[in-house]
Amino acid sequence: MIYRSKKDWWLVSLVAAGMLLPFVLAIYNFVGGNSHEAWHMLFAGAVTTTVVLLLTYPLYYEITPSELKVRCGILVRKQIPLSAIEEVRPTRNPLSAPAWSLDRLHVGYRKGGAESFVLISPEDKATFMRELAESDARLVVQGERVVRGR
Predict the structure, then answer these.
(1) Rounded to an integer, what distance in angstroms lies between the CA atom of residue 3 and that of residue 34?
(2) Which domains, and CATH codes, for the chain?
(3) How many Cα neighbours within 13 Å face the side chain of 9?
(4) Each residue's pLDDT tens digit in the chain (150 positions)?
């Protein structure tokens, strides 16, 4: 099943404002008669918007029978084997992550013998965690966490 990212209104608004500001400044400069500066602002706005969209769209998490797939834009394409997942727990960690919300899940897993993690924010965390546990017989729901049974 595919899960979309939960979206914090303030985070989406902050990013949208950053993308729109150069366009507003371009209009202000066109009205003020400074068309040279306005064209620079239009270019900056177009570049900023393109970069943000390329880095954040599409954004989803998919649980397949064998792995958790995390997709975020053109750069993030993680495929985490379900057998490598050690723990999933709620967090509000503000580190950069493929997530539009700070209401996140910390997915701890092993990669090449080393511990690693990814922060995600599925809209329906409870259903996501339940499906994850159902997809691997050794993953067990314990309260608000999913852990690997021994």
Answers:
(1) 46
(2) 1-150 (2.30.29)
(3) 0
(4) 999 999 999 999 999 999 999 999 999 999 999 999 999 999 999 999 999 999 999 999 999 999 999 999 999 999 999 999 999 999 999 999 999 999 999 999 999 889 999 999 999 999 999 999 999 999 999 999 999 986
Written as one letter, the residue type at 92 is: R
Half-sphere exposure of 17 (CA within 13 A, CB side): 6
**Spacing of C-alpha 17 from chain mean position:** 19
User: How much is the pTM?
Assistant: 0.91
Which structure tokens are listed for 76? 């993030």
What tokens appear for 137 in the block?
Answer: 């017989």
